[in-house]
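OP here, attaching both records as promised.
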Amino acid sequence: MAVAAACGLQFTAARPSIIPARRVLGQAVGRIGSDPNAASWIKLSSASHTSSLQLFQCNFMSSSAKTERMVTKAMSEAGEKQSSSGLSLNLKGKRAFIAGVADDNGYGWAIAKSLAAAGAEILVGTWVPALNIFETSLRRGKFDESRVLPDGSLMEITKVYPLDAVYDNPEDVPEDVKANKRYASSSNWTVKEVAESVKEDFGSIDVLVHSLANGPEVTKPLLETSRKGYLAAISASSYSYVSLLKHFLPIMKPGGSSISLTYIASEKIIPGYGGGMSSAKAALESDTRVLAFEAGRKHKVRVNTISAGPLRSRAAKAIGFIDMMIDYSLANAPLQKELSADEVGNTAAFLASPLASAITGAVIYVDNGLNAMGVGVDSPIFKDLDIPKANA
């Protein structure tokens, strides 16, 4: 994970040169004492660099007491603004709800960590059947190593909510699910109920993350997928995002951000990624654009999705060929390295921050550039071509 300062993640930026400012100040020294716009000059210099203000102070010892007080105040304000170098990604005071966190090795967990590292308060929604195991593991410290943030502290999850995003409200839940022992010990876990619970507990959120998907027939080719399996994939992996945003938007603050996770199978053929899951991801990306328009106009909330490369998560292993996809990416992507979950998490933190205030309705690829490739360069067909390779 990227290095973080105490106040959050940091993007390193070049420090502006102070030489031009000194030249300007030197030329202005002779006339600024009598210049009626002196206050404007001093204010302007405070935005350049503290040392420029110190030069001001040295050359204006004979100026009026009023000007000296203004210089001192400007220096103080500049010092406060420059408490940390670089461009700060600071989510302190923000609250995020991440739907779909059930262990410590998926993208949902990585996103939660990056948001926490940037200072956000973390709430999570966990699939009801996995809730007991997840909470027990948290309580017993099994995730402590994975909770370590860049500053050495542990990520704190303020509250874990039971959630099954397939059901919008209690009336939608079939009787057999209600009677299932895995659901019996939990309550208020439909999308509407969870949103109401978060509102009651915290009042509002700033960030909503959708990190869940399910395709019961994902290993079947599309031609062998049943209607029930296809619709189940769409319901759990695509419409669940529409439902989450619909119910959480009323408690999201203007300027907030909503993020989901998609996959390149939405637009390219990935044999083995079946059961309607490719269709579900295509729908998710289309919905992202429409939701960006509607949520932006009505609530001033941004909506984006991250197209993440393959990761060895527990969920991905259910597909059955995740190792093969990782090997393929290593051989063919422009960046020949294995993708880290933290890289996706950091991208989500950026999208949730004011630094991405003009980005909405976008599919952001975080896959080492694999999406840009038109062919697999590891094919024997290209054996005689001079294909660029990583330096040894």
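Record two, same layout:
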Amino acid sequence: MAQAHPVLLVLLLFLSSTAISSSKRIQPKFSAIFYFGDSVLDTGNNNHLPTVAVANHVPYGRDFPGKKPTGRFSNGRLIPDLLNEKLQLKEFSPPFLDTRLSSNDMVTGVNFASAGSGLDDQTSQLSNTLPMSKQVDLFKDYLLRLRNIVGDKEASRIIASSLIFISSGTNDFSHYYRSSKKRKMDIGDYQDIVLWMVQVYVKELYDLGGRQFCLAGLPPFGCAPIQITLSRDPDRACVDEQNWDAQVYNSKLQKLLTTLQGSLHGSRIVYLDAYRALMEILENPAKYGFTETTRGCCGTGLREVALFCNALTPICKNVSSYVFYDAVHPTERVYMLVNDYIVKYVIPQF
């Protein structure tokens, strides 16, 4: 039998090793990603609910592929879309309530987030949206459907090797400041109630098979144009009290997540510092090419959001220079920067 030429052997070994390394590289880090939370993550679930908290009309979606409104509260894509694409799962993050979901969509993760919702059920009652409790119930419905598609064993594997991404709480606190709760309950006590709910839902998702969790802290929501408008500050500075409260809540959340990870065997729970990621942009706008940080691109930019940001509302000329698209929600360019932050600092922790 003729021996293979040594150069040929080396070449074959090299080719097989590069094939292995490239197949490893192509393998996504997570089998699927599931999103729970509010309008920062909602890719269209609210389109299927009888609520006014919708963005399925122009000028939302004007920079989305196909230039059409989809229910996303921005001019383009949101973190779930960008992160799914970056982690090589798929191009977008499909809303679970969409009746046209394919089996492939089901297997690689879906989105349960609902704009206007919170961890506190009462927050969602005001806007008739899906509170966290209902989103977790929908996840149970999803599990039944997934098991029908791939079988029990594979379904359990998918959930255990998936990422569960949660960003909720902003609506709970923005409602707190404007409700009778503020007179009855100290902010610290309300934070503890919301944190107790975080614990309940993470444990429930863990019991359903989830093992890898990313939980976002509160953003500096005192810098949202609508919060500045409501504060009536002529200088349009961020509302310090709200930002301070957000930071206090975030430090409590970080402590809770460390404790939770210790008590939930085999879990990995990573904190996303959304406050820092957004504050970096708001404090250094020129570094990132932004010129407008206190007004949205839609209308006057002071209070237009949801149905008040519509086809009759004038739109800013250069959206890429705006941090906010409406009076509450960031532009796609901000989400891209935050997504880069997540991929650089959060994902390597898994």
